[in-house]
Amino acid sequence: MAGELEFPVVKTDEDWQRELSPAEYQVLRRHGTEQRGTSPLNTEKRSGVFRCAGCGQTLFSSDTKYESGTGWPSFFAPIKDSIATTTDRSHFMVRTEVHCSRCGGHLGHVFDDGPAPTGMRYCMNGVAMKFEEQK
Ligand SMILES: [Zn+2]
Asked: How many whole angstroms separate alpha carbon 60 and alpha carbon 57?
C-alpha cells in the first residue's frame, strides 16, 4: 500500500470512512473492485470530466473514454498529472495499480491492451469517480 504521507490530501481512516459511502470507501481506501457492469458510468456518453470521488481532482476527460466491453469504465489516457501508478502483486498477478495523485485513492488498474493513440486501457472503478457534465 502506498504511503499516505506522499499525497497532498491526507486524512485519517476515520475521516474517509465518515466522508465516503461504504462502496466508495471499499474501493478508494481498501483497494476493492466493484462488480463488473454495475457502474452507471459504463454507459455515460455525455461530454464532461470524471473526478476523484475522494478529493474531487479531475482524472479523465470524456474525450478519452471508450467502450472496452469489460464492464468497467475505460479510458485510453488520464488528464496530465492526475494519477500515479504503483505495482500491484496481489491476487497472484502483477498489475499496475492506478491511484489519484492528490489523495492516493485507489481507482483501478492500467493495462497495455487499449486503443490508439496510447495503446493503454485505464480500467476504472466507476464508484471511485464522479461525472461532471460540461456543455
Ligand atoms: Zn483523489
From this structure: 10
Which set of grid coordinates corresponds to residue 65?
473514454
Residue 4: predicted pLDDT: 47
Phi, psi for 24 (deg, rounded to 5): -65, -45
SS3 of 11-35: CCHHHHHHHCCHHHHHHHCCCCCCC
100 is catalytic: no
Instruction: Give the gyration radius of the chain's Cα atoms.
Output: 14
Measured in angstroms, how far is the CA atom of residue 45 from the centroid of ligand 1? 22
Cα-to-centroid distance, 99 and ligand 1 (Å): 8
| Average model confidence (pLDDT) across the chain | 94
